[in-house]
Amino acid sequence: MIDFGFDKLALIGGVALIVIGPERLPRVARTIGHLIGKAQRYVSDVKAEVNRSMELEELKKMRTEMETAAREVQDTVQQEINSATQAFDQTWADVSGRSIGSTDAESGLPSYRHPKKNWRVKRGATPQWYKQRQGVRRHAQSGAARVARFRPSPARRFP
What we know:
Blueprint: H1 6-20, H2 25-96, H3 104-107, H4 119-124, H5 128-134, H6 143-150
């Protein structure tokens, strides 16, 4: 930027005082100050935008590097899983003495059946006396039946 010393600023102020005049000099100085402030803000905005774009490019570059590294790790893990699966299948085939594609009916072994977790069996395992003592409802009631059950009898009504 241009280097203005005190002597140069005094010379410019003296020339401006003679050319513009003492009446309009404060207004012109204020206007010039506003314009210089706007120019400085514009320059700082441009610098900030350039810095943001540079950071964005760096982040994009870092993102691509991380994605490639993640893909490499995923491929390595997938290869290890595949090799472990093949080794397990081979060992299973060797132990069971049959090929991998055979069915359980051919070998005579019982087929695997998922244990069904039946909530009725679980509920039925609890004794009725325990449910009654703990206040667990044993039967479902409709809203109307519940109201009728707890409605006071006509003999108890107050006159």
